[in-house]
Amino acid sequence: MSTDLPGWVPVEHRWLGLDRRRLKPAIFVLAVALLLIYGWPAVNAVVPWDNPIKAGDVLDLGGGATAVPPVGWQLEDGTLVSDDTGVSPSRETVKLAKAGAVINMTGAAFDGTAAQFLDQVLTSQDANADISGAPGTFTTTSGLAGVVRTASGPAGDELLAAFKMSETSPATAPALLVEVSTAPNSFQEYSGEIEALLRSVTPGSTA
Amino acid sequence: MTLTGSPAKDAQLSAIDQSGWGAPYRLFQPHNAAFWVWLIGVGIGSVGIVKFFGAGFGTYRLAVTSGIVFFGIYLIPWLIFLRHQNRYTAQPGALLATGFAWGFCAAAFWIALPANTAMLEIWTKLLGPAGASTWGAGLTAPINEEWGKGLGLILLIGLAPRLVRSGYDGFIIGAFIGLGFQVSEDILYAYNNATATFGVGQVESSLYILALRGFVGITSHALFSAVFCAGVMWILGRAPGERHVGRGLAACLAAMVLHFAWDDAGGLFAWNDFLLLAAPYLLLMPLAIVVLLVVRRLASRTERMWMRELLAPEVEAGVVDNELLAAVSGLHKDRRHFRKLVRNRRRADLLIESAGDLAQEIAAAGGAETPRVAHARRELLRLRGAAA
Fold first, then answer.
1. With an 8 Å Cβ cutoff, are A25 and B125 in contact?
2. Following DSSP, what letter does each residue of A103-121 receive, concatenated?
3. Rounded to 10 degrees, what is the CA torsion of B168, B172, B177, B182?
4. What is the pLDDT of residues A123-150, one digit of tens each?
5. How far is B285 from chain A (nearest CA, A)?
6. Which value does ipTM take for this structure?
7. Co-location of B230 and B106 in the same domain
8. CA-based, 20 to 30 A from B24: which of A56, B99, B313, B345?
């Protein structure tokens, strides 16, 4: 005669305090969950990036706005004009990477000036509150005036640039944030390419 | 001690045994490994939630709190609706809450967040950023999210093997797991939307997400998981005569395909400007609802049969008449027919609910005659007298 008192596990079914008869679903769930959680990152780690920027590639920043990315960098996120998929100027994100350097470009809806937008960005990003450089003006080849700040620290170098994507009505135009971060003491290596990218930022034809 | 003897009584006892109706449920089962896996998943998921929202809580406090409040309110009609759907099986609230917590914490933040991040990057590497932005979401979410949520059902089978038996059990539990996932994801969307504008207009941002996600949520995670989990139960075949591997695979696949089509509607309908805008609402939403209704109808068959067997001795004794039995164990058209017969919608609904109560009490008593069964029967007879 066996006991079926709720919660009582017969001695022959005990294993490390657990009921061996109930192990199957738990092991299955744990195995599949771990496979999803760690399996995909493992696959991701072995698949190499292969979206290098080629000569002639132009970034689509939405609403007709464009920028010319540096050749040879990996395009990890973003849309090229040649993709012809149509992007929103206030939602588009671009990520370019090369060795320890990363360029992020983010479109946002913001009413106000480029300087006010950069202030809002700094207010919302507490982690970057140590930005030390004084704000400077940066004018693109197309005549778009932006605000730039830089910072340097033991974690690396950083540059933040903000633009309002219209020369005629900047207050209501979408904003563009360009964030560049590089490994310590390597900013100089990329500064020419970064300056060329910033200079190439062009607002849409309707601006 | 339970009496046996009549074929109706034997069928009733067999239905109680097969269905598990009335079986107790307790989450805290230290001898059960499924409990520990649930605790690990929900625990790590909860830490993930705190870390994710905590990082930007100073700046995005308004977006997070308004997201929680808005979607907390949004949850109420959903719970009322799903409680109504629980009529055939009456799963205990604690079991459904266990599933909801899995969907909210574990499936969303323990599994989907890291798995989706990695998989989306794989698609970006393979298809390029433009290809990944068009197809990445649809090729990622149906795998990681449907499986992540479905694992909650497997754990509940381990935690309550007697209660989780039929396709309809999977349907209802799946809906609750999916609802947990959905609300969790919606709060995440409210937070992410606020970060896209660097914290400007956070409450407006949450309201926008509530309007957008609230509407599309009608045919979102709760629906996908209900269909997927009914499919899992058919594959496992835990109730006599309920093993339908082909049907189960078709249901799981249907949920994943609907999820894919919804996430990648932009890519699927890019060839036509009208469809690009209208197809998700005019094509995919109705299709999802049709799939849901077909699965619900197929899944409820066994539970409705158990309901008839549970009440069979009561029919023999004249407590329940055939029309009421058809209504309480039937489909919408049967209840509509019964309402016409009674000529009073409210009274008909009370009779149906009362007959359901009696079935639940009989199951909880294991078929024995207890004061609660006698009371439920008296209540039904009182109502029937009033209906006569």
1. no
2. EEEEEE---S-HHHHHHHH
3. 120
4. 887 655 566 678 899 999 999 999 999 8
5. 25
6. 0.92
7. yes
8. B313
